Amino acid sequence: MYSHGIIYQGNKSRSHGEYKLRLSLGRRVSYHFLRTFGAGLIAFAITGIVFSFWPIIKSEFLYRFGTKNQIQIDKFATINGRSQATELGLDPYFSIYIPKINAKAKVIPNVDAGNPTDYLKALTQGVAHAKGTYFPGQGKTIFLFSHSTDSPINIARYNAVFYLLRKLTPGDTIIIYFLGQEHDYVVTDKFVTAANDTSWLQDNGQGERLILQTCDPPGTSWNRLLVVAKPV
Q1: Which of 30, 92, 105, 166 is disulfide-compatible with 126, CB 3.0–4.6 A?
Q2: 31 three-state secondary structure
């Protein structure tokens, strides 16, 4: 707060030794303006942080305290893949559902993983299927990836779908809907690899496998987290 009030000079009478401390009107207006402006900037920054990280906060909260989704799968046990995908709000043409972390997204096929213009556009719509890899039922490697971002604000735009991928462990279920059919996979491995490791895009000649990729740690582009699954 700016200085104001009354002081008194020693050895003088109260009326003659009196000094009034008070800023001019212009300085008081400037002070209040800067104070309000500063508070507004702080509020704006807090709002921006909450907005950027809300998908992460929401995902963590639902994972820890939300209802588990295995019951939801069971109730669709006698329904075909197209109907089940529709019930889940997914595209039966190509989409992914991971019950344990409640991750659901449309899959954009044949996205060039080496072309930022191509994959950034695709990742605003869902998860990307790497061009040159295969599709469910073809008996070879299927590679799906989400955005690896080094900007926190992009987490809300690109990375939330696979944010909880690190929670998966061997034995967890991954469901892919492709051309109206359901394809079930079970997680076998999970590990971290270098950001420039592209070897996993190649088929290993050992049958069908599903590979999911996202960034690690979340919100950075330092490494890649890979989850490998085999058909049930």
Answers
A1: 105
A2: helix
- Give 88-113 as a DSSP string: TT--TTEEEEEGGGTEEEEEEEEE-T
Q: Are 108 and 147 in contact (CB under 8 A)?
A: no
Q: What is the pLDDT of residue 54?
A: 60
Q: How far apart are CA 157 and CA 121, in angstroms?
A: 11
> Please, what is the end-to-end C-alpha distance for the chain in angstroms?
69
φ and ψ at 160, to 5 degrees? -70, -30
User: Where does the chain show beta strands of DSSP type E?
Assistant: 5-8, 18-21, 94-98, 103-111, 127-130, 141-145, 173-178, 181-194, 209-216, 223-231
Instruction: Indicate if the pLDDT at residue 206 is higher than 50.
Output: yes
pLDDT at residue 75 is higher than 60: no
Look-up of token digits 């997914």:
90
